[in-house]
Structure formats: C-alpha cells, structure tokens
Amino acid sequence: MIRRPRLPAPGDFTAPSHSPLVAARLGLWLGVAFGLCFVTGLLSHYIQHPPGWFTWPTRPVNLYRITQGVHVLSGVAAIPLLLAKLWSVYPRLFARPPLRQLSRLLAHALERICVLVLVCAAFFELVTGLFNVAQSYPWGFFFPAAHYAVAWLAVGALLVHIAVKLPVAHPALTTRLSQADTAGVVAPGPDDRDMSARRAFLRTSAGVAGVAVLATAGVTVPWLRRVSPLAWRTGAGPQGMPINRTADAAGIVVPPDWRLAIVWPGGRHTLSLAELAALPQRTAELPIACVEGWSASARWTGVPIVDLLRRAGAPTSRPVRISSLETNGLYARSTLPATHAGDPLTLLALRINDEELSPDHGYPCRLIAPSRPGVLQTKWVARLEVLT
C-alpha cells in the first residue's frame, strides 16, 4: 500500500535552535538593533529635511557622527541576527491554518501577512542600506525617500508582530534555556544537550553580529580602523580626508574673478578670496560625518559664518542658505539653521590640516559646521543668503 506523502508540521522540527526560547531572545536582540537603526535614521532624516518643530544641537560636535555611526552599525548587526531569527522560526511556516474557525483563520491570515510585510521591509532596508554605504544604486527609485517610507512600514509591522507574539515571547524570555522543549512547553527535566545547543546557537549568532560590527566599525571609530577589514572608508584621500564627490564629477570651474556674495533682505556684500583670507581666522577640529556611516576628523581653518555676517552688516540670528558653484547636484544648496549659523565653530573654511583646500575638498571655500551631515557641508561655496 502506497502512503500519500505528508506535509511537514512544526513538531517535526526538533532542533534546539528552533526553540521558542531561542526565537524570543533573538527577537529581543533584533528588536533592539532595529529600534536603534530606526531612531537614529529618523534623526538623520529630520536633520536633512527638518519639520518646523525639529531642532538639532551643534554640541557636542561629534553628535551626528555618533548617531549616524550607530545607525549604520546597528543595521550591520541586524543582518546576521535577522537570518538567525528566520532560521529559528521557519518551521512555523508549516503550521496548518485553522480552517474550521473563521475568526481564528482570519487572525492567522492577518498574522502571516504582517510577518510577510515585516520580513520584506526588513530585507529591503538592510539590502538597500548596504548598497547605499557602497554608493551603488542599481535601481530606479530615490533611495532616501524609499528608505524612509519603508522604515515606517517595517516599524509598524514590527509593533503589530510584537503585540501578537507578546503572550508567547514574555514567558519564553523569562524561562531558562534549559527548561523548554521545541514546542514551547516547560519540561520537567532539562536536557543538557538541548541546553548546550541552544546556548551555542545564541552565542554564535551574537558572535557573528559582533564580528560584523567590529569588521566595519572602523569607518566611524578611528581607533578600530586597523582591525576593521571591511570598513568602506578610511582616513585615506586628498589631504588625508575621504571624499564622496570630486570637483571633476561635480563639473566645478572656479572663475578667475570669483567673489563670495553675502546677501540679505535689503543688503549685499562681496568678498574676494584674498579678502576672505585677510580676515581673522579660526581653527577647529571638526568631523565630516557622512550619511553612509563613515566619518573622519580634520583641522579646519576659516572665518566663522557669524563673523562674516556681522562684518557685512547682515542679520546674525536667522537661517542661512549656502549655495555652491555646483549647479546640478541634489545638494548644491543647503540651509544652515539659525543655531548653526550663529555657532562660532561653523566656519567658511579656506584650509584643511594647515593646507589650502584642494579642489576636491571645496576650493576656494567650503562650509564646515559641527554636528551636521557631510552631505550638507556644502563645498565650492559661492553665496550666503540670510533668510527671513
């Protein structure tokens, strides 16, 4: 007699790594990584596209460097944790839906849809984030807008998933690894082999996540650069600083009669490069912290923006729009909030590490401000416009 093949059921998967206790702990770690990634990513988005109620401080000067480093490194840590989490719970895919009870069937279907949305959104965020740090965009959509929108989708699905699974996850998190079998039932006696296997799987997952972070953390933590072989940026580059966009790529041509224009409602003032260099200069150690996660510090020398405005007779307590000689780039202009424009460490820099700016670093002058994304540190500055 030939028996019909039977579809697998969750109970057929008896490996200790499929234990609810393992899945719950991995879920907790993954939730922390996703939470850090979401909050710091939201901060970065609001700094670049500030709503009316949002303000971002200028001190400490490394604040954005820290938050964006946490954003990228928590995303790196989430990759192995997500794969381990999916491995621990994939037997649940074979659970048969309760076909005879409509209410339970609908709840089961909604849960599965939520999980599908969560997994797809998580993979989208992590994969596109990896491409972003590599500055590779093999798709037709605008990465920042898509990344921001899908992040909200992922967090919404995650919150729903947590609410649904909390009755299972809470007991699992408060139970010792040696006390539960693969079906989630507290066992009267521990199995030493299962206990060791669960702990080994969790330690391996955490270890892989830690190695991934260590291998990439050198992009933003200078003293880890020698032990971060996968860091996508180092201190190397023109004048000892990395760059994302060269002067040639931006199509920059500095006119021989270049002058900096400072304009405000009812007034205008211009300065040549020689006149800028003759003004009192300030030197500050400030980082460039890129949205891709890398950061590096340099000694910048230039004239504080607030001093320039004051000498020109322009208002000094308003936002300032910075315009570049670059005309076609997405970030050819940026707006300094009033708090940054008034900070004496916000410089119109003429020199880097005691050398005149090279064309790739923004010659004849560039903006460098504390606690600000590198993409908003406008290079090849041609105009300062005080806004109302």
TrEMBL record:
PANTHER family: BLL0505 PROTEIN, PROTEIN-METHIONINE-SULFOXIDE REDUCTASE. It comes from Micromonospora coriariae. One of its GO terms (cellular component) is membrane. This is Sulfoxide reductase catalytic subunit YedY. GO terms for molecular function: oxidoreductase activity. Pfam families: Oxidored_molyb. SUPFAM superfamilies: Oxidoreductase molybdopterin-binding domain, Transmembrane di-heme cytochromes. InterPro entries: Di-haem_cyt_TM, Mopterin_OxRdtase_euk, OxRdtase_Mopterin-bd_dom, OxRdtase_Mopterin-bd_sf. Keywords: Membrane, Transmembrane, Transmembrane helix. It comes from the Bacteria.
